[in-house]
Amino acid sequence: MRIDIITCLPKLLDSFFAHSILQRAQQGGYVEVVVHDLRDYSTDKHRRVDDYAFGGGAGMVMQIEPIARCIRALQAERTYDEVIYMTPDGERLTQKTANGLSMKQNLIVLCGHYKGVDERVREHFITREITIGDYVLSGGELPAAVLCDAIIRLLPGVLNDETSALTDSFQDNLLAPPVYTRPATFEGWSVPDVLLSGHEANIDEWRFQQALARTRERRPDLLGEN
To answer: Which residues are recorded as binding S-adenosyl-L-methionine (predicted)?
Structure first.
């Protein structure tokens, strides 16, 4: 998989992709993440990529010209499955969304800024719009990083145990059950006996019931019970 991220603040993403699972995924050849500085595609001598909004009002708007140049330059090199715009009014990112995008080959992710992008970008270049929640951040870099993390960890070979991602919260419309590790007893607090029994079927059933109970308590909407 290849993910191209377009941003006017590329250094914000440097650290995020240089550590832990995302770094290993790139080093192992499972994904290629390329960050593009939108200002490189500006023809303004000051490398500006924003301007005042037509009609007045507060805030600046990202211009269509540098974005169009960047997207077209990338599309001239390869075919992209999606051109994604990170925006507060997009569809909410879910595990199902991440699962679907992890099956794609090439993605472009555009990070919004200021008051957003010229609407013509959304009309003529963007194929999908995604938000990570109902709130507004200073820019789309953090949402882009969250989206990439959610996708990349699902790629075969990225996690040491490929079944781990399949038991995460939301994979089966359930929250994950409680988990424990050593010591078996700490200050009188003990791990449930079933987890120490070695009886795989009983453990699986306990985990399912715990996941169901936790989901019903915390996110009944996932069960259609709200």
So the answer is: 112, 132-137
User: Is 100 annotated as contributing to ligand binding?
Assistant: no
Phi-psi region of 57 (alpha: psi -120 to 50; beta: other; left: phi over 0): left
- Can you give the pTM of this predicted structure? 0.90
Which amino acid appears at position 189 of this protein?
Answer: W
Closest Cα partner for 111 from 73, 143, 64? 143
Q: Which of 92, 84, 120, 90 is nearest to 221 (CA)?
A: 92
121 is in an annotated binding site: no
- pLDDT tens digits, one per residue of 90-119: 999 999 999 999 999 999 999 999 899 999
User: How many Cβ atoms are within 10 Å of 43's Cβ, its own excluded?
Assistant: 9
Ligand-binding annotation for 133, yes or no, is yes
Alpha carbons 8 and 144: distance in angstroms, whole number: 13
97, 109 in Cβ contact below 8 A?
A: no
Query: Is 132 labelled as part of a ligand binding site?
Result: yes
